[in-house]
Every structure is written in C-alpha cells, then in structure tokens.
Design brief:
By secondary structure, the protein is α+β, with helices and mostly antiparallel strands. The chain has one domain. The chain contains 3 helices and 4 strands; from the N terminus they run H-H-E-E-E-E-H. Strands 1, 2, 3 and 4 form a 4-stranded antiparallel β-sheet that branches. The longest helix has 10 residues. It is globular and about 30 Å long.
Length: 68
C-alpha cells in the first residue's frame, strides 16, 4: 500500500494519475455522488481523500482516456 501511495504522489498530471490507476491491478477509483477516492484491493487509500472533479481539463483527460 505504501508503494502505491508513493507512486501516486509522483504523478505530475491528472492524466498521469488516471493512467496509473488504469494500469495498476487492484487499484480503482470509486465514485459516489460526484466525490471520488481510490481503493487498492478494496481498502481505501488514505492520501486519496474525497475529491471532486471540477475542471473541464480533468473531464477532457477522462474523455481522452476513454478514446472519445
């Protein structure tokens, strides 16, 4: 779990953050009513806190990852 936290902190952009989540087995982004946090093998990662997607740039990154 500590290695996951350290690698998340090294992500320089939101896009890198999303790529890391997508490419790491057992790591997933959980969303509830617009808030999100990360879980690794079902356990919440402390540094992921509950955040909101707020910028259009972040949404554009999500759409780019989805191939849209």
């Amino acid at each position: 779990m500590e290695e996951i936290r350290q690698r998340l902190k090294r992500c320089n952009t939101f896009y890198d953050f999303l790529l890391f989540i997508r490419d790491t087995p057992g790591l997933e982004m959980i969303q509830d009513n617009g808030w999100y946090w990360l879980e690794y093998n079902g356990e919440q990662i402390e540094v992921s806190g509950k955040e909101r997607f707020t910028s259009s740039g972040e949404m554009n990154d999500l759409l780019r990852l989805a191939g849209l």
